[in-house]
Amino acid sequence: MKRLSKQWFTEHKHMDQLPERIIQFGEGNFLRGFVDWMVHQMNKQGLFNGRIVAIQPTPHGKVVPKLNAQDGLYTVALRGMENGEIIDEVEVVSSISRGINPYNDWQEVLKVAENKDIRFVFSNTTEAGLSYSAEEYKTEVSPLSFPGKLTAFLYHRYKVMNGAPDAGMKIFPCELLEDNGSLLRAIVLKIADDWKLPKLFTEWVQESNQFCNTLVDRIVTGYPKDHIDEYRTRLGYEDELITVGEPYHLFAIEADEETANTIPFHKAGLNVFWSDVRPFRDIKVRILNGAHTMMFAAGYLSGKKTVHEVMEDQLLREYVHRGIYTEILPVIKINETQSKAFADSVIERFSNPFNQHFLSDIGLNATFKYKSRLLPTLEDRILQEKKLPEIVTFSLAALIAYYQPERMQGSSQIIRDQPEVIELFMKSWSDLNNGNESIENLVKTILANQSIWGTDLNEIPDLPETVCHNLSAIVKSGMENAIAMSIEKED
């Protein structure tokens, strides 16, 4: 079977001539099924006329070689319900010109910085990727962190273009963190200070570059490994980068009208809002992303693989439903009708039979996701109701149960998190399994780690005792029985 390439796929041949206008840190399923798909929609309508250079974010990435072998082409499949109708469509996306592995070819990344046509930066390196990390500045070698790469990129551009105000970039981080643009700018400035870069450069970063806060929403499940034969037959070609997602999408961006007009997503009929992202963020992160993090460990340890399988199980569906409607919704300080409508849509999206959204993928960097997505709900619930939210608290115990050594090593490794997180859980569970630790002390040790949670969670009244009780139930009775007991307790 022929492989997807520009040699025979000529439908978007004219787009080969479009200039590179975007540098993108990240080349994973989400960006390809969201931002890159959006840029493609604009290009088809002649509204943007630019392509993307995709930068591999980590040393162990595997996408760039495949992307370059397919000349930047890949297929996006959108499947689900939209306005009461079934959507099932596929499209070859041609908005990426090439991918670069910065760890092998950092100088090529710096050449991109010298290109005056490059005016936009997009990123999605997961929430954990948008964080400060002290590292040495070496002009010939790529920094390891995304903010480090961006700082070095901007500094090279600044030097080559003599600090020209119009050489500044419009930067759109898509990581699911509050005020992500402001956070990224602060980290870049911190790194510039670490590296003792010139004061004039830091002034240029602040005055000539626009760091936009954003909020993204689309469920992208990625490569359909369980249905790949079906897709090969349907498409008639081999594509190692097929990306499957739902039709629904939302992109909220805090930026001025001038910026909106330079990259006019909204004019292409896309669901993009140039406005304050906070209302969108609170609803989306608390409900949709919070529910994902709330369900992944409970579902996986109940023998389920996907979100859809969770929603097909009566007990787990009740678990998710209660968590959303009785614990998350009541603490959201936004229009009640709007929040309820979004919650209803989330239940429908989770139940989409086309979406093979793997729980193990949702579990990527799960500790950080719990901190940003569920911990605020837990804390708000205590402030408002003077008691712990049962389901949200149970999900923390489920997360701890999920992070056991057998899922962190060997060919069956599925847990991916920061090294210090892996080390903490490996040691804690190993000590317990070797009889050197009790579940109570294991829980307290994990909850006490402020580098993970940002605070000592043991200080939250009744939290360590409740998590210990739930974890003990999971270990002794199994996940499903423990969930059933938790729901009965809430009743």
Set down the secondary structure blueprint.
Blueprint: E1 20-25, H1 29-33, H2 35-44, E2 51-55, H3 63-69, E3 74-82, E4 85-93, E5 96-100, H4 106-113, E6 120-123, H5 126-129, H6 146-160, E7 170-173, H7 180-194, H8 199-208, E8 210-211, E9 214-217, E10 220-222, H9 228-235, E11 243-245, E12 250-253, H10 257-262, E13 272-274, H11 278-300, H12 307-312, H13 314-328, H14 336-350, H15 359-362, H16 366-373, H17 375-385, H18 390-402, H19 419-433, H20 439-447, H21 450-453, H22 463-477, H23 479-490
Parallel strand pairs: 1-2, 1-6, 2-5, 3-11, 6-7, 7-8, 12-13
Antiparallel strand pairs: 3-4, 9-12, 10-11
Helix pairs in contact: 6-7, 7-8, 11-13, 11-14, 11-16, 11-18, 13-23, 18-22, 18-23, 19-20, 20-22, 22-23
Task: Please explain how this structure is put together.
The protein has 491 residues and is of the alpha/beta class. It has 23 helices and 13 strands. The protein has helices at 29-33, 35-44, 63-69, 106-113, 126-129, 146-160, 180-194, 199-208, 228-235, 257-262, 278-300, 307-312, 314-328, 336-350, 359-362, 366-373, 375-385, 390-402, 419-433, 439-447, 450-453, 463-477, 479-490, and strands at 20-25, 51-55, 74-82, 85-93, 96-100, 120-123, 170-173, 210-211, 214-217, 220-222, 243-245, 250-253, 272-274. It has a six-stranded parallel β-sheet. Helix 10 (257-262) links the parallel strand 12 (250-253) and strand 13 (272-274). Helix 11 runs parallel beside helix 14 and helix 13 (314-328) crosses helix 23 (479-490). The model has no long low-confidence stretch (mean pLDDT 94).
